[in-house]
Amino acid sequence: MQIAKLEQLQYARELIQAKLRLSIVAALTNLTLEPLRKMWKEIHGERSPNGKLPESALSYVKTVQMVRNLSAIVLLHQRLHNTKEITPRNLLQTWRAYNDLLGQVDPSNRLDINAAYYALRDVRSNQLTVMKCNNCRISYIYDRELSLTSHCPYCKSE
Ligand SMILES: [Zn+2]
After folding, report:
1. What average pLDDT does the segment 121-138 reach?
2. Which burial class, exposed, middle or buried, applies to 79 when counting CB atoms under 10 A from its CB (0-12, 13-18, 19+)?
3. Domain locations along the chain
């Protein structure tokens, strides 16, 4: 087996341990779904979830805290990796660093890796804009579609 393929399998295993949905794992690693399903069953002892995937990061936005958490992970990703691109390696690094930093302060800040992925993906495709608040100068993810994402989640300024 080629080294590159072994590496993809190792990343797939780590992404599945983190419970990233399999169709996303498949897309990120270029592996097919069948072996990934087996791997999920092996690791978690149950079948992988089959339900519909959310359409965008906004599906996860129910509270102002979530806007803050998603904003924080987007900024952390850009700071750590200096790119908007998403690879298995940089996604795992960003997600772990985020949970180490913020999840330890308050466990309710811990972020589902799927939500993290969607936030990064939507910023990369410019569906979400990173906006700097004119008032408090903190950057956040902006989208006019929801009232929660159409103003600064920290000071509530427009
Ligand atoms: Zn602000």
Report:
1. 95
2. exposed
3. 3-44, 57-142
